Amino acid sequence: MANDIGRRQFVTIFGGFVAWAPRATAQQPAMPVIGFVGTGFSGERTRLMAAVHQGLMETGFIEGQNVAIEYYAVESQYDRLPALAAELVRRDVAIIATLAVTPAAAAAKAATSTIPIVFLTAADPVKIGLVSSLSRPGGNATGIVSFVGELSGKRLEILHQLVPNAELIAILVNPTSPATEIQVRDIQAAARMMRLQLVVLGASNEREIDAAFAAMIREGAHALLVASDSFFFSRRDQLVALAAHHAIPSIYTQREYAVANGLISYAIDLPDGYRQAGIYIGKILKGAKPADLPVLQATKYELVINLKTARTLALNIPQTILALADEVIE
After folding, report:
1. Are 229 and 74 in contact, with CB atoms under 8 Å apart?
2. Residue 315, H or E segment
3. Maximal CA-CA distance, the chain
4. Are the C-beta atoms of 18 and 10 separated by less than 8 Å?
C-alpha cells in the first residue's frame, strides 16, 4: 500500500501518546482529518490498518489524497485519555476512531456530543453508555461490537477442554478499564454454568502483571484466561513469557498473542472488523449520521493454536479443537 505506516512521520508526543501523521506535501489541499486512537501501528498491527484503508477505499477515500489520518498509539495511559479526547475536540477533527480501545471510546464520548465517533469494542456499547441501542445509536457514536461476554464464555469453554482437570482458573483483568466489571460478570456467569472455580486478578501496569502471576501461583491456579484489554495487548510479550515461565496454559483475546508464542487465542476476525470500521468512517465522511448507522455485530471469529507452545506445556490439543482452528502455528 503506497501510504503505509512505515512512511509516516513521527510528529509529537501528547501526554504520553505517540502520534504519527502523513508527511506533508507542498500545496496540499485541506482535507478532513481522522483522529485515530489505537494500540500501536507497527508489526502485526499493520495488517489491521491495511483493513481500515481497504474499507476507506471501498467508500472512495485514500489517505493523503482526500483524507488525512493522525495516529495516536495507546498502551496503559487510560488516565490521560480524557486529555487526549479534549485535544482531538480542540483540533476539530472530522471523526474520532477508537478501534479496540474501549476506554478511548468512552473518553471521546464524554468529551464531545457532536464530533462523530467510530468504535470497535468487545464490551456492550449500550451498557457502557456509548449508544442508546444497537439498532438506533441515537447520538454521535457507532461502530462494531464483538460482545465480550459471549466470547469470554467460549474462551472459558475452550480452556476447560484443554485443561479438563484444572480445579482453579485465573482471570487477568485491568481494573482501570470501564469494560472490566462487565467482563468479570460475564466470565463468572459462564464459570457457574460450567461449575468452574475462578480467581480474579487485576493488573494495570508492568509491575502489577508480575505480581498477578505471583498471586496466581500462590493461589494454585492451573490455567489462565487473559481478558480483553488494549494494555494487555501492548504487554503481550510479557504475558506470554510469564505464562511460559510458570507453565500455565493460557487463552488470549487476539491472534497476535498466539503469534507471540501464546498457547491459543479466540477472537473476532479483527481485519474484518477494522474494514467495517473503515467503511463506516467513509460513510460518515460522505454525510451519514452515526445516529442512523446501526452498531454492527461481529460475525467472523478466528481460533489460533500454537502447537509449539502446546508441546512445551505437554498438552495434547483435542481433535475437536484442532478441527475448529482457523490457523495452527507449528
Report:
1. no
2. none
3. 66
4. yes
CA distance 31 to 88: 16
Reading the block at residue 57, the C-alpha cell is 477505499
Q: What is the pTM of this model?
A: 0.75
Per-residue DSSP letter, 297: E
Nearest to 277 by CA among 76, 104, 36: 36
Contact 148, 123 (CB under 8 A): yes
In whole angstroms, give the CA distance from residue 111 to residue 156.
36
Q: Which amino acid, one-letter code, is at 291?
A: A
| More confidently predicted of 305 and 80 | 305
Give the C-alpha separation, 154 to 30, whole Å: 47
pLDDT (tens digit, 9 = 90+) per residue, 163-205?
A: 999 989 999 999 988 778 888 988 999 999 999 999 999 999 9
pLDDT digit string (tens) for 265-279?
A: 998 888 899 999 999
| pLDDT, position 48 | 82
Contacts of 235 by beta carbon, 8 Å cutoff, 6+ apart: 75, 76, 206, 209
Domains, the chain, ordered by start: 5-145+269-299 (3.40.50.2300), 148-268+302-329 (3.40.50.2300)
Query: Rounded to the nearest 5 degrees, what angle is found at the Cα of 86, between the Cα atoms of 84 and 90?
Result: 115
Q: How far, in Å, CA of 291 to CA of 116, rounded?
A: 9
Average pLDDT, the chain: 87
**129/112 Cα distance (integer angstroms):** 13
Q: What is the DSSP string of 252-276?
A: ESSHHHHHTT-SEEEEE-HHHHHHH
- Among 152, 141, 146, smallest CA distance to 112 is for 141
Residue 274 CB contacts under 8 Å (≥ 6 apart), including other chains: 48, 49, 51, 52, 55, 99, 120
